[in-house]
Model the fold of this input.
Amino acid sequence: MQNLPVDHLDADILILGAGGAGLLAAMHAHEISRKLRIVIAVKGLLGQSGCTRMVQGGYNAVLHPDDSLEKHYRDTIVGGAYLNHQELAWKLVEEAPRRIIELENKAGCLFDRNADGTIHQKAFAGQSFDRTVHKGDLTGIEIMSNLRDYILEADIRVLQETSGLDLFASNGAVGGALLLDHRKGSLVAVRARATLLATGGGATMYRISSPSLEKSGDGMAMAYRAGATFVDMEMLQFHPTGLLVGKSMATGGLLEEGLRGVGARLFNGRGERYMERYDAVNMERATRDVISRSSYLEIMAGRGTPSGGVYVDLSHLDHDVVRNSFPGMVERCRDYGFDLVHERVEVSPSAHYQMGGVAIDVDCRTNLTCLFAAGEDAGGVHGANRLGGNGVADSIVFGGRAGDSMADFVIGRDLPAVPQAQIMQLAERWQTALTKDKGGNPFTLRAKLEDLMWEKAGVVRNGKDLSAAAAELHQLREEAAAVRVRGGPESNPEWSESINLTNLCHVATLLVESARIRTESRGAHYRQDFPSSSDAWLKNIFLTLTDHGVRVEKKPVKFTRPPARQDPK
Amino acid sequence: MAAIEENQYRVRVARSASSGIATEFAVVLEERMTVLDALFSIQRNQDASLSFRCACRVGMCGTCAVNINGVPRLACRTRVKTLGTQVVSVQPLPNLPVIKDLVVSLEPFFAQWKKIKPALRPKDPASKELVRVPHDSNYARNSAGKRDCITCGACYGACGVKESSEEYLGPAAINRAYLRLLDPRDSAMKERWQALNEERGGIWRCHTQMNCTSVCPKGITLTDTITRLKRAALSPGQFENR
Amino acid sequence: MNVYTGKLAQILQRITGVLLLIYLLLHVHTIRELREGPAAFNAALATFRNPFFKLLEIALLGTVILHALNGVRITLIDLGIGHTRHVKLFWYGAVGFGLLLFLAGAIPMFLQGVLKV
Done:
């Protein structure tokens, strides 16, 4: 039996994850009080891992006098197929603008400007106004590198290449978490007055997906095991234009939405502009769920391209405009031998983002005391489908709110008592894989999970496949718990993968369960056996793991802020 | 499904367990695959203990920088076919301590990065206005092409001065300092100039080898930044007119 | 030309710099003979007519050309020229021009001084 060393650390605020949400939380808490002991655990390198870094398109914010919060709110609710938590959605649009100012004037970002020096906002799908703030076609790098520099100079403690294994949960409260330093192969038990989940989601459970490779929904999985309540877990967005590069790891990486914003066209394998048949009004500027589904149906009907995708075509647009607007993408395509400017390129729907997540209130509190969630880990902001440009806005807005909320929460609060026995029990659970003589291979099982999810719980779903998926997942969870990992604990990629596998299986379980329950199609969730939306289903699905299994609750969406009706044209 | 051309390669990877001596692996790769794909293939199918870093795999995070056939490059952006060799040699980034196999410690890199005070020191942090930066402004013109650094460390690994000088800031940190000096919102010019003019570690240690410029995956002309700062250092007041 | 050509250039600049310094000292030392009158000076110069020294002179020519052209290149770079568009031009131009100059001097020097043609 392994007995890995366990370091002990106390903190006022423990932040799991260091994307936009995690770093904004740290920044806000730090600005409120420099005396707060903040500890950030990041799975990769600070500021360089996760998906905020990979944001291409931009960040939606109402900044122009001709734009309005009501318009942005309505776009968000309509885009979310009315399933959004309306107070959260309102907070998103209301605070998005002030965070742009924070990102620039406090964190040092500088987004693209018009010729006259005012901020440039570009067009994005599903928006009634061109409000997407950006830096070139690589906005995430600008945001994350500046936030990283802020954190470096604020001297906030960061544990790199360290991820959470489990939360210290008892009696409906969370007292911190057990972390693993993947590099050193040692454990860290952090006691904290408040803990924030900001690790991002588990879209990587699918065969073709876009996120950074280390992401595996760790925060969600830990929350699940600790008894947190989740909302609308069936809602997972497939981005319509993930690059297809054979079996390369590059497959799934996104060609951003801005392409469709400037007029890119989509063709099937037969050269037909198939969006005519699915949404003749919006064509390629329809929302992501509509396009992904249309592409997927074309591919399933046998009208796909040689690599099993569809074509995105910019060749009819001004070549210089394309080169100047999307230099990052043009260059990346060239790396693999594609010519995005002059030729059509094969793309496919790519699992991208989880709208569902841990249920929060406007202050990022979850149902577990002392546990907060922000960014992709949290659910409800985007309802059934997220608009491009609202994701990074979500992380930045709610990350900041979580920081404010936690800084206030910890005042006068004692450090929780975490029994040594609990720490040792959790430590043992995660080390067993290292001690086995035989067991499954985590890489093989991960591939199995990805294929299962893509085929049975993917873009197009049905009851029969979802039930089969649930059964197979049950089997996979057991196999995941029984894997065998070779080598020692230090820098062990196989061990890291086995942990990712378990976490993804847990998140997948919630997704499939919720997908089975929702017998309608709405936003990103499409069921062949229930292809239309029903007002009876204007409900959110809440799932909570209890001692007696998963408790399901369905509650009608609260229309606390009905969106304004469309302006007559 | 169309047939994708596949080729065989011999990939030599430096391993810590054998004190840096390379282990050779035979790998079959699709024609568009990258060095990163080769590393994953080895890890998944041949040697699960092979350690290397990667995250985004699309050239945005800068995590996977390694030495490929003697040149610091991003593994995810190096299509193996374009190397033109049957044997591909992969080693850790030079000038940085090796932790395991291809994983190096970036602590020295970020220690230098911190010396130039990389964060914005705003003159007015509470300002509610977005600074106006017209396309013909000093900032816009001078910062063009310099802002895309992904802190991959390739320049640091390629630098001939970094080979023997621990104190030298390195091109990336100097470039970052330059951008902050140009920034009309920033107020920490003096501290940054102090770091840049410092005898043992500042811009004057640069010998214009231009290895950094050759290897930067984002095409930043780093030597140009350094020579701009050298000229600016000789005529004070250069950055006052921002 | 590859990624590390600039590094090679710096090393060569250092080496040629040191060599030129040694040459300068030798040169000053020889010129001092002027103080001893024309006969002594001419005698000193006679040593340098033998083929071995002629070869050294050819080498000196190469050293000066290399150091000078590289110096010009670096000066231009310090002034901000040649960072993007002209990098390859600089290298091949400098090498080409340098080679031309070298041959223009070295060939006659070799033919007359060494082969005594």
Notes: Chain C has one domain: 5-114. The helical segments of chain C are 5-31, 38-47, 51-78, 87-114. Chain C has a mean pLDDT of 87.
